[in-house]
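Quick one: structure tokens for this chain, please?
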Amino acid sequence: MRLSTKGRYAVMAMVDLALNGGERPVVLADIAERQQISLSYLEQLFAKLRRVGLVQSVRGPGGGYLLGFPARETRIADVILAVDEPIRATRCRPGTAEGCLTNRSRCLTHDLWEELGKQIHLYLDSVSLADVCERRVLGTSHLFQGEESPAIVAAE
């Protein structure tokens, strides 16, 4: 199971907007350059984000985009869902009794994968843009950047 580039890029752009916006609008070209995302792709994503109110556009000189809600109130799950990215771990279509097998039954592991998808959604719904901006979701990725984990140091 993978999260597509739509969802990942939308989250990256929204975090960039939260970090660099504040009171002044941010130009999409600046986000595109900083995050190395195609400007035309970002324009498509931001059109979807604007439709659901997660961002506001400001026209004219000095225009750009602002967050639609404070970063602490904007959930990562909402950003992903706004760009049409349901988080699914099953091959089956959600909301139907039909399964993914040729006889339309569900595979033996269907409930396992469906529950995993729900857990992923619950987790992403518990994380805000502010959490990401303030590095409150730091896992073990810092270990690969040369930093030592406090748990590892304490265990030595």
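Confidence is low (pLDDT under 50) at residues 149-156.
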